[in-house]
Amino acid sequence: MNFRTHSTLYFATGIAFIALETIGAVWTGIAVKSLIIPLLIWLYLRFIRGQGNRFHSLIITALIFSWLGDVTLQLTQFKESYFMIGVGCFLIAQLIYMLAFFITAGKNILFFRKVYLIIPVILYGWGMLWLLSDGLGDMKLPVTVYTVIILTMLLAAINREKKVNRQSFLLVLAGAIIFILSDSILAINKFAQPFELGRIASMSSYITAQYLIVIGCTRQFNLSLK
């Protein structure tokens, strides 16, 4: 299976899940959703071809926790307590992504030369928490912690600018931004104002974000797959 076919299969599986969820096919939807991230892990493993290192191990581990988060969040429809488990899994995934991006060797531009880039990220986080504040209730602390972690992951992605080639930097940065967009849509839909197509927008952007991050990480090492 070549790169284009594998990528098509990944996005087709994501679209199939969205369609199944839309028509209310609960268990089939859960089964299909549980295949999305494993397809991405498989693609990543094909890129590295067994030539693992600490960075690759971290990315794969982040994807595994993302998969656990996917499955547990989907089970929230049966028991609300699964939501916290899912948030916890994604929090760990974001921490691992953040670590992988920060440990990449090279110049740390963000905290020395371009510290001003931190300001819009902080303002965005503050604005989101303000928007969600009335509906968070007991979830205020977990959501605040998660917001800080995922925005720090974005800062770590920005900090890669002088550490990696341009293509890898832009792909991972785009993935990190879209990941935050996905989580923002999810949070607004759950805690502030449910809106039509919110779930579709959140899931489609999440699938895209994970893909961009993974492909960007392979480009960091100039890995190719025909």
* Uncertain residue segments: none
Structural domains: how many: 1
* Class based on secondary structure composition and strand pairing: mainly alpha
Biggest beta sheet attributes:
none
What portion of residues belong to β-strands?
A: under 5%
Mean of residue pLDDT?
91
User: What is the chain-wise order of helices and strands?
Assistant: HHHHHHHH
- Taking the alpha carbons of the first and last residues, their distance comes to 9 Å
Q: Whole-number radius of gyration?
A: 17 Å
Strands, count: 0
- Which shape, going by the Cα principal axes? globular
Number of helices: 8
The residue fraction in helices comes out at over 70%
Assembly status = single chain
Question: Could you characterize what this model shows?
Answer:
- It is a single chain.
- The chain contains 8 helices and no strands.
- α6 packs antiparallel against α7 and α7 runs antiparallel to α8.
- Helix content is 77%, strand content 0%.
- By secondary structure, the chain is mainly α.
- The protein starts with a helix and ends in a 6-residue tail after the last helix.
- It has one domain.
